[in-house]
Amino acid sequence: MEKMQTLLVVLEPNKMEQPALIRAVYLAQRLQAQVTVLTTLYNFSYELTSLMSQDREAVKLALIQEHQTWVQAVLAPYQETGLVIKVHIEWHRHLFESVIQFAMQHRFDLIMKATYAHEGIQSIVFTPTDWHLLRKSPIPVLLVHDEVRSEQGNILCALDVVADRDEHVQLNHALIQASLHWEKLLDAEVHLVNSYPETPVNIAIELPDFDVQAYNQSIQTQHEQKMLTLANAFDLAPSQCHVQAGLPEDVIPEQAQQLNVELVIIGMAGRTGLSAALIGNTAEHVIDNLSCDLLAIKSAEYRTPIVPVEEK
To answer: What per-residue confidence (pLDDT) applies to 15?
Structure first.
C-alpha cells in the first residue's frame, strides 16, 4: 500500500462535482502520482434497436463522443494545476466489473470513487457499485465522502488483534503500515481500534456462579495486551490504542466520531463460502454507520471472482 503511483478515479455520472477526483489530485500532487479517470456507459436500447450493424456502431460512437465532451468539461478546472489526467471511456454493462478489470489490466495501485450522504441522516448511502468494488476488487478501494474533509481529522485503523491465522496477522500488519503511510499524506494521527464481545446475558442467567465481571475483564485485558504488542511493533503510543466491548459495527463508527476521524481503514480477508458471507456482512454493517472516507484493503490471499482481461 506504500506504493501509490497510479490512481484510478471512477467518475460519477451526470455530476460536475467529483469528490474522488479532488482527492486524487491532492494525493497526486503530494506523491508525484499519475491519475486516470474512468467512466463507463452503456445504452441497453442499443441492443434492442433494429438498425443495421453499421448504423448501430454509429449510434454507439455518437454516445461515446457526447460522453467525452462531458468528461472534458469535468476535467477543465484541473487543467490549471498542470497535472496530466488520462481519460478512459468504457462501453460496458456493469460499471464495477469494468473498473476492476481495467484496474487489474493496468495494475493500478488504488481505486477511488465518491460516496454521498443520504439527505437527513449522517451516514453514507453506498450504491450497489460501491459494494461490488469493496467485495470484489483485489486492489485497495478508497471511497471518498462528498463533504469537505476535516483539516484536523484522524485515521482509524480497525484490527482483529486476537486473530492467529497467518493471513489475518499479515493483514493486521498491512493495515497498520497503510495507516502510517496515509498519516503522512493527510497530516493526521493514526489510531487503532478493536472490539471484543461482551458475555452473553443467558450465560449469567444459566450459571449464577459465573463471574461475568471477571470474565469480561479477562477478555478486555487479553485484547489490550495484544493491541499494545502490535502498537509497540510500529512505535505507536498506548494513547493511540482503543479497545472497547461491543460489536464492530457499533464500536468502529462510535470511535470514528469521538476521535474526529476522516479516514477509516478496514481489512477484508480472502475467505470463500459462508465464512466470506459472514465477514462481508460484518464489514457492511460497519460501513453503513460511517460518515467519513473509507479505505478497504484485501488480504494477500484474496482472489477476485472477476475474470481479468488480457492486456492489449
So the answer is: 83
Distances (CA, A) of 105 to 2, 39, 132, 248: 20, 16, 18, 34
Q: pTM for this structure?
A: 0.88
Topology adopted by domain 1-148: Rossmann fold (3.40.50)
Buried b (16+ CB within 10 A) or exposed e, 32-44: ebbbbbbbbbeee
**Which of 138, 133, 101 minimizes the C-alpha distance to 115?**
133
Domain ranges across the chain: 1-148, 149-312
Contact 195, 245 (CB under 8 A): yes
Q: At what angle do helices 128-136 and 273-288 cross, to 10 degrees?
A: 130
Alpha-carbon distance of 298 to 48, in angstroms, equals 39
Task: Provide the angle, in degrees to the nearest 10, between the axes of the packed helices 128-136 and 95-105.
Answer: 30
Report the CATH number of the 149-312 domain.
3.40.50.12370
Say which residues have a Cβ less than 8 Å from residue 58's Cβ, sequence separation at least 6.
Answer: none
Helix, strand, coil fractions of the chain, as percent rounded to 5 = 45, 20, 30
Q: How many CA atoms lie within 13 A of 70 on its CB side?
A: 19
DSSP state of 8: E
Taking the alpha carbons at both ends of the chain, their separation in whole angstroms is 26
Residues 70, 12 contacting (CB under 8 angstroms) = no
Closest to 227 (Cα-Cα) out of 189, 175, 187, 182? 175
Give residue-wise pLDDT tens across range 166-175: 888 899 999 9
* CA gap 204, 292 in Å, rounded: 38
Cα separation, 312 vs 306, whole angstroms: 18
Tens digit of each residue's pLDDT (9 = 90 or more) over 53-105: 666 777 788 888 888 999 999 999 887 778 899 999 998 888 899 999 999 99
